[in-house]
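Quick one:
INPUT:
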């Protein structure tokens, strides 16, 4: 049974809990992250802070958000580089002097102002049923459409259409998973929004390629 409330959703037939796989929204409590049910993260090594592992530059004071849909599959080493990682490029140097010269007298508004740089890219949005391969990097402000596949070690700097397969650095569309009429129908079905019992009842249709059965 799929359990969106389980910290570790993968259990082997012998009862062994796979502790390297987590439901992300059960291990992340971050004011600038929104994570849908059943979206999991797999990491080979122990992780103390999952929010910092996947989005190291997203801070509680950051203006931008990281939004991850439902049923997203995130492999080991995937990192989201959000807009708060950016440096000010208007001057002769990009060195962030102010970051290293704060004092006890530095106020909240002054710290918050450090994030207000020109050319901000805004929120990073990952759709539903997206698969991000090992060590992929998603750059600031990118939107990845539903059903897309991101190849291992890709660097994604531009928006990705729904059901596209992208790979490389910079990542480019290698192919579309389905033709456009099929994609339109899948986007209309939006199986990831169904109640869990209906998803489980249609699991074979969802995992297969019979669109008529999925729509039925």
């Amino acid at each position: 049974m799929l359990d969106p409330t389980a910290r570790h959703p993968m259990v082997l037939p012998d009862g062994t809990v796979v502790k390297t796989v987590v439901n992300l929204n059960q291990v992340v409590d971050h004011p600038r992250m929104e994570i849908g049910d059943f979206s999991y993260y797999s990491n080979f090594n122990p992780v103390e802070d999952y929010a910092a592992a996947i989005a190291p530059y997203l801070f509680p004071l950051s203006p931008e958000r990281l939004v991850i849909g439902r049923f997203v599959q995130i492999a080991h080493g995937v990192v989201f580089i959000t807009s708060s990682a950016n440096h000010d490029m208007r001057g002769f140097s990009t060195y962030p002097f102010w970051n290293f010269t704060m004092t006890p007298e530095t106020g909240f508004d002054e710290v918050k102002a450090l994030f207000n740089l020109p050319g901000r890219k805004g929120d990073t949005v990952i759709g539903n049923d997206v698969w991000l391969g090992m060590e992929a990097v998603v750059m600031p402000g990118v939107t990845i459409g539903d059903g897309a596949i991101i190849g291992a070690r890709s660097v994604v700097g531009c928006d990705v259409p729904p059901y596209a397969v992208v790979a490389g650095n910079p990542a480019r569309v290698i192919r579309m998973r389905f033709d456009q009429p099929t994609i339109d129908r899948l986007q209309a079905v939006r199986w990831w929004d169904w109640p869990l019992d209906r998803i489980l009842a249609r699991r074979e249709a969802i995992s297969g390629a019979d669109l008529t059965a999925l729509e039925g």
